[in-house]
Amino acid sequence: MRSLQILRSQNIVVTMLVVLLIWHLLIAKNNDCPTNKPRMTNPFGENSQGDARISQTTLTFGDVTPKHVPVIGPMSIGPTTTPKMASVYAGNSRGDNSKPHTTQMFGRNVTQKHVLVIGRMTTGTKALAGILGDRPDFFYVYEPGHMIMSLDWESGTQDDSHIHLKDLQRPLLKFVDDIYHCNFTNHPYFIKGMNIENTVYRNRAHFDNLPIPVTEETLTSMCLSKHIVSKVVRITDIATFSETLEKNNVKVIFLARDPRGMASSRSRRFIDKKTGIQLETSLLDESVRDHCTWLEMNYDSIINGSSWLRENTLVVRYEDMASNANMIEKLVNDFVGFETTDKKRKDDGKPESITKWLKYFTYEEVLHIQNLCSDRVFDIFGWIKVSNKKEYDDINFKSYEEDKINGFLVK
Fold first, then answer.
1. DSSP alpha helices (H): ranges in 348-388?
2. 138-142: strand order across its sheet
3. pLDDT at 63 over 90
């Protein structure tokens, strides 16, 4: 009988141990569940996975043909608000940015200004963003989307088609949001880019004299002590960023360039460097179609968007900047809220670049490029089409209406 009681007691103990073991295993499994871990998605790998993918939403430009007018209105990529992420420098970086941030600059308290310059590749965004980025009182983040694709995903960066950039939008939105909070904890590629000599991220944003190694703490401190400007050519639709931009009180400067001028600058990328022979012309055609569709869609997103976005967006034409850089610099300063000095730029633009496409393309090629875009794009931005050979041969041909825009606030 005593042996039977001992055996029963041992069975109870074993059962309790098994139950405890199973309980601990369930807790460990729940803590290690992959759905609880944020992952960065690489859109160029079949085995990539993670919450950053925008696979639930289909965004397409559609088949853009001559005279085609894209669907008007913003296109959604889902919720644009993102949870705040803790920073190891949480005492320095800002959390909620709903209130204007005041910082010390040159011995006085000033309200920090936030600016975003958007456009397309080879359209002059570098020169436009440089109006503010070249100032010593600005913290300049150069091409955050390029950083993600090059330094984090290690993927191609020269294709700015909508399809190629679709999966970039969500991580780019998060990075842009954190830039205006001076929070770089979750963006190690930014720290990496600042620690590689002679990168565009350092040189063009004037960090080239910053001693390496550059720490996150150093960048956070610099960011908090200056105004902030970022230049991005990889945002597909500004409407998807509108809520975040409003929350951070970001002024938007939208750059538009004549598709014929963009094509003449872009075409160099489609020339074989060894032979000098033009590669498949369809590549350039696709770039022109994407460029015009992007211009029209984003313009519509602004004018049909919130009143805040309309009131805080400045549209600038490349042609105005190239013909009168001093005027555009004054316009940008007024828009952001800076006093304009009487000091003039040594280089007041490059007017010869406005119609260089007339020398680069044949008459037939010019007509072809014009027909890749809708008439509405030319009308919105005041670009004048070449309608006959006589106009094409005219060295004084005016390709844009000077009083059409000259930089304007969208109302």
1. 357-360, 363-371, 375-381
2. 138-142, 227-232, 114-118, 250-256, 313-317, 408-409
3. no
Q: Are 409 and 311 in contact (CB under 8 A)?
A: yes
Q: How far is Cα 159 from Cα 165, in angstroms, rounded to an integer? A: 8
The answer to pTM > 0.70 is yes
Measured CA to CA, the distance from residue 330 to residue 132 in angstroms comes to: 11
Cβ-contact 349, 391 below 8 angstroms: no
60-76 burial by CB neighbour count: b if 16+ within 10 A, else e?
Answer: ebeebeeebebeeebbe
DSSP 159: -
d(CA 379, CA 65): 17
What single DSSP character describes residue 278?
B
pLDDT at 279: 53
Residues in the chain: 411
CA 208 to chain centre: 22
In the chain, % of residues over pLDDT 90: 52
Phi, psi of 345 (to 5 degrees): -70, 145
What are the structure tokens assigned to 364, written together? Answer: 């037939």
DSSP bridge partners of 231: 117, 142
**pLDDT interval class at 283 (50, 70, 90):** confident
* 8 A C-beta contact, residue 295 and residue 258: no
Mean local confidence (pLDDT), 28-45: 37
> DSSP secondary structure string, 162-218?
HHHHGGGHHHHHHHHHHHTTT--TT-HHHHHHHTSTT-HHHHTTT-TTSPSSPPHHH
The secondary structure of the chain in percent helix, strand, coil, rounded to multiples of 5, reads 45, 10, 45
